[in-house]
TrEMBL record:
Protein source organism: Hansschlegelia plantiphila
Listed GO MF terms: sarcosine oxidase activity
Gene Ontology BP, a term: tetrahydrofolate metabolic process
Protein's name in the database: Sarcosine oxidase subunit delta
Phylogenetic classification of the source organism: Bacteria, Pseudomonadati, Pseudomonadota, Alphaproteobacteria, Hyphomicrobiales
Length: 96
């Protein structure tokens, strides 16, 4: 599998480190149900077949954090985005 880093260009998988599901959001520790929310956040994860958004680091390159959208059945990559841009867009959407 090859990942198209937005900064370095297309590179082999061996330059990247998989960091997990990019769709989970850390719960608010001051929420009323914080304990239950943190248990679910840490231990309960989906294992989808198909399109999935994943967090990757270009560990042996520019050190960027990336959100890679790919089909986990075929490893076909649909898009690669800077994780900061994804988080900023998510935060701006939540504030509306």
């Amino acid at each position: 599998m090859r990942i198209a880093c937005p900064h370095c260009g297309t590179r082999g998988l061996d330059e990247f480190a998989y960091l997990g599901d990019a769709t989970v959001v850390r719960p608010d520790p001051s929420a009323e149900n914080a304990e239950t929310a943190f248990v679910e956040y840490v231990y309960l994860r989906d294992n989808p077949a198909g399109r999935h958004r994943e967090l990757w680091s270009h560990a042996l390159g520019c050190q960027s954090w990336l959100v890679v959208t790919r089909d986990v059945r075929t490893h076909a990559i649909e898009s690669v985005e800077n994780a900061r841009d994804v988080a900023t867009a998510r935060d701006q959407g939540a504030g509306q």
